[in-house]
Amino acid sequence: MTAEEVAEELMVSQSKISRLENGRRSISQRDVRDLCRTYKVEDKALVDSLMQMAKESRQQGWWNAFGDVPYSVYIGFETDAASLRVYEPQVLPGLLQTPEYAEAVISGALPEAPQDQIAQRVQVRLRRQERITDPLSPLRLWAVVDEAAMRRVVGNSKIMSDQLDYLVRMSHEPHVTVQALPFDMGSHPGMSGQFTILEFSDESDTSVVYLEGVTSDLYLEKLSDVQSYSMMYEHLRAQALNADQSRQFITEVAQEHARRHEEGAAGAAGEADAAD
């Protein structure tokens, strides 16, 4: 196959294929996977070996130090991404979670996981968040969050209040935008579930749509798929509250959680006094 034929098959630029073949560009696991598929490499052990070499050759592979991370392919994409567009219907965005909220989310999602595995996942999530605070090249994050994710009591009301206050603080960062999608907005294009659109600074790298699954994840790279999800996201952004309205909305929900926590604490104190 010529470089032109390979580029057409993968829907990338011919220059990208040329740079990969001439060693002028580092190769990602995704590149290896796609090239193996194009070249009809059917030996899974060989493909896995090549992908592992590609993973180890990239300096950004900090997650290797945490052992076997199930979603390491996604972390690789996220590490290379210039921007993320995220829709979250059930939980608050992982890159904007407090340690307490992250631990409560992961514990609830993996009820049978040992404590050391939960602690490892929390550490990985907090390490991922460094992209948001990177002073040289911060990740551009746009998040549309359903009201359900803000109302659901993960951990306890104190954790939720602190988490939502943190979400508001982070939304003031110039490269972070958070929009709330209240229940009152009715049906919307995101009702089928969570998704993330990753975009890269290199124009030859196609955008990727990430769909998280229980036992496996899905990565969509076809232009038509990316365009469909991008259009869905535009509709979500249009239906959601704007940035200022969202901060006010999230603050009000945070205050409700704080009141519940205070009421619960007062009730517990009253019961203790009665017992005495």
- Treating each run of at least 4 consecutive H or I residues as one helix, how many helices? 12
Q: Care to count the β-strands? A: 6
Q: Trace the largest sheet across and list its strands.
A: 3-2-1-4-5-6
Mean pLDDT: 89
Computed structural class: alpha/beta
**Uncertain parts:** none
Please write the string of helix (H) and strand (E) elements: HHHHHEHHHEHHEEEEHH
Layout of secondary structure:
Layout: H1 3-10, H2 14-21, H3 29-38, H4 44-57, H5 72-80, E1 83-88, H6 99-109, H7 115-128, H8 130-133, E2 140-146, H9 147-151, H10 157-171, E3 176-181, E4 195-199, E5 208-211, E6 218-220, H11 223-239, H12 243-275
Relevant terms:
alpha/beta; 276 residues
Could you explain the architecture of this structure?
By secondary structure, the chain is an alpha/beta fold. Helices cover 54% and strands 11% of the residues. The protein is built from twelve helices and six strands. The protein has helices at residues 3-10, 14-21, 29-38, 44-57, 72-80, 99-109, 115-128, 130-133, 147-151, 157-171, 223-239, 243-275; strands at residues 83-88, 140-146, 176-181, 195-199, 208-211, 218-220. It has a six-stranded mixed beta sheet, with helices on both faces. Strand 4 (195-199) and strand 5 form a beta hairpin. Helix 3 runs antiparallel to helix 4 (44-57). The longest helix has 33 residues, at 243-275. It is globular. The chain starts with a helix and ends with a helix. 28% of the residues are buried. The mean pLDDT is 89. Residues 256-276 are annotated as: Disordered. InterPro entries: Cro/C1-type_HTH, DUF5753, Lambda_DNA-bd_dom_sf. This is Transcriptional regulator. Pfam families: DUF5753, HTH_31. Residues 265-276 have a biased composition (Low complexity).
